[in-house]
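Q: What does the assembly look like in three dimensions?
Context provided by user:
Components: three
Sequences:
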Amino acid sequence: MRPQENATFRNTVVLIVGLFLFWELAYLVVGDVALRSPWQTVNFLGKLMQTDLFWLHLADSLKAFAVALAIAVILGLLIGFALGLHRLSGEAMEPMLVALYSIPKITLYPIILLAFGIGISAKIAFGAIHGIIPVALFTLNAVRTTRPILIKTGRVLKLSPAVMVREILFPAAVPEIFTGIRVGFSLTLIGTVLGEMFAAQRGLGYMLMSAISLYNIELIMSVTFLLVALAASVNMALLVIDRRLHHG
Amino acid sequence: MSRLRLYQITVVAGFILLLEALCLSGVIDKITMPAPHIILRDLFLMLLAGRYFDEIGKSLVNVLVAFASAYLVGVIIGTILHGHKTTREILDPLFATYYAIPVFAFYPLFIVMFGLGDGPQVLIGFMLAVVAVIMTTLNGLDRVSPVLKKTARVSGLNALQTARHITLPFCAPYLLTAAKLALAYAFIGVIGSEFIMARSGMGYEISYAYTNFDNATMYPLILLILLLSIAANSLLSRWERMLLVRRGQA
Amino acid sequence: MTVAVTAQVTLRGVTKVFPAAANVNPVHALGPIDLEIRKGEFFAVVGPSGCGKSTLLELIAGLTAPTAGEIEFEGHAIGDNVPEGVGVVFQEDACFTWLNVIENVEFGLRRTTIDKAEKARRAAAVIEMMGLRDFARSYPAQLSGGMRQRVCIARTIVAKPRLILLDEPFGALDQQTRLLMGDEILRLWRQTGATVFLITHALDEAVMLADRIVVMSARPGKTIDLVETGWPRERDSRIVERENFGALTSRLWKTLREESLKTMGRAG
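A: Here is the predicted structure of the complete assembly.
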């Protein structure tokens, strides 16, 4: 690991220890009425992971997420490239995409439910609309801000358009595009889980909501912990790759 | 009118007209979605009759509370962290990963801890917004160049005066960006939470209308939320842009 | 008849060592240096990159304190405070982008206790002097690099400092603008009667503008030569036509060339 990554690793460890301590402290203060300790939560999670039901729900979430992510990335890349290559479209659409980014997308969920019906398609659609915009925006930017000097260099070297895209333009754009995919990944995950929290009969989000109606605090905390830990670790891994791509 | 504006208006108008056509021709049936002009009319009537004003007002108040607290706390924490390098470095991974975490997953936990009142929604809104404010504040403070700080010393300014006459005006665009983000996240957090599980507020009314097949209520409310969040975002963006243009940072 | 020459700034045995930081060894940037800057003169400093010229300027400005030795401004020791009566123009653009030109210049009068009307009057006079009248209400972002630098100079001289420190102020400008700015600086020098201390890496600029030039060695910077140009006070850029202009510039370069090669890591 490079020294910079060493430092990040050390900081992350300190942070995680700190967060666990904070959690334990909160538990000691609030008590069993509303919380469980870190140890109890992890314990319960372990037991939970031995049940078939858990894996059923997890699989459902992952299936929806995977498809949503694929759609978000593919469509996002296409839209991003198209807008990036056509100057006027890119300039005009970018602020509109940014505006769409800031609306509470959950308010669109009922429309999606009405269109797709309750089921996995609605979850996939909902997850996808969360991820499309960042992928598109970052790709758009990556293509649009390709430094002219790179293009000039390609022309001086008499490269054909195909070679230029493959050897110069695409590699130059990859770091930015990857960041877009990383952000899209996280947001798609959030979108999928959020969709499950509102109207679903399966999945981790649904587990969370049913836990609340059962007032099963252990379940609530375990699933919350699992979701947070999963999302955080995957994102950190993607971040390491992201940083490596950006610093070459 | 510039080509850009024309393009944008064409896209939006085109989209609405497309929806209108699809609805009127029956491709999109009435149960799924009424035609745009009907939604607009229903919204108009709803506002005129003053229905749901209480719920709308309640949601907006919660959004503002989440926004204001996240903004205040965020700026203060950002400023403090800027002076404490080690603490900042330790928290850095948290900030980098924060927006990948499904904050809404904490909502059930908050309901258990605080009951089903307004608290959990505002808290979720706060949690979503606060880190964006911290990060933007840090970003702005990072960019105060050494030459400006040296100029402050040469002009005989003490720490407080430097903050007031140099750091603050320099960071103004960033503070505005932070406000824009905080408002957007507060909106998402509060309305989203009302949706999932609440007893009042705009989000709740929409989900209630959904379960009762009440398109005449649901769609106007959805439209209202969209319009409000886009309007707020556009206003702040425009203000932000004005500041940036004047400073040549656009 | 000899005119009494008073020292405005004195440095005795001044050394600056930057302490060790994470992954960085302590840096012996400067000194020991003994130097005297006379009241009212135009004094220049040249030297290879990294020799500590900017550090020297910051020491005199009171922006940083020496590790050893004493610095005095008008008889008083300078520590870590910028003394009253000292103005600094930096290499980087220090314009406040959120204020227009007038507001930027008026900011230079912060430390004074004069009333608003007088401030406005003085600012207007300096803006006129610097040729910025037509741009008084513009914002820095709307001005060219040279004009922004003029705004910074205006902001510095409006407070009528007795010592003006310039840290490669024309570094970011093109050659022609530099030459014109040189003439302006000379004019300002004569009009304000202040002492000017200029750091530059351009030898011809130093010889053209200064009464005395000190050459610094490679790091740790020490003074290795002091050249007196002997120019009359009433001079401008046409001084380059003088006979000994070439000789003076050559002398500087001869001393400097070796030091510069040392900095670049090759033997002379």
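Follow-up: Chain B has two domains: 1-33, 34-246.
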